[in-house]
Amino acid sequence: MVFFCFLVDQQRKVKSSKPAAGICSRCGGGASVADMKTATRFIFVPFYWKSWRAIICTFCGAVLRSYG
Ligand SMILES: [Zn+2]
């Protein structure tokens, strides 16, 4: 099981985003509502996708709030 950690990684992608009210608590940049997609990969082969929505910072990319 130790090696499992090295073989599995996650990739986060922003499918689309729209400007939203609010500012980033980390850098003060503008927030936006984004449709995110996270792909879990096993030895660089994606085997699981998850779509979710989040409020992210357009400047530093921090996730300010996530839904589902
Ligand atoms: Zn930020």
Fold topology:
Layout lengths: L3 H4 E16 L6 E13 L2 E13 L5 E5 L1
Antiparallel strand pairs: 1-2, 2-3, 3-4
Bound molecules: zinc ion (ZN).
Zinc ion binds next to loops.
Walk me through the structure.
The chain is mainly beta. The protein has one domain. Strands 1-2-3-4 form a four-stranded antiparallel sheet. A hairpin with a 5-residue loop joins strand 3 and strand 4. The longest helix has 4 residues.
Instruction: Please give the largest β-sheet.
Output: 4 strands, antiparallel
Mean pLDDT: 90
Computed over alpha carbons, the radius of gyration is 14 Å
Order of helices and strands: HEEEE
SS strand fraction = over 45%
Annotation field: number of helices: 1
- From the spread of the alpha carbons, the general shape counts as elongated
User: Strand pairing plus helix content: what structural class?
Assistant: mainly beta
Indicate the low-confidence ranges by residue numbers: none
Number of strands: 4
Largest sheet, spatial ordering of strands: 1-2-3-4
- Ligands (ions, cofactors included): zinc ion
Span between termini: 28 Å
Helix content: under 10%
Quick gist of this model?
By secondary structure, this protein is mostly beta strands. The protein contains one helix and four strands, in the order αββββ. The radius of gyration is 14 Å and the shape is elongated.
Key words describing this protein structure:
68 residues, mainly beta, four-stranded antiparallel sheet, 1 helix, 4 strands, elongated, binds zinc ion
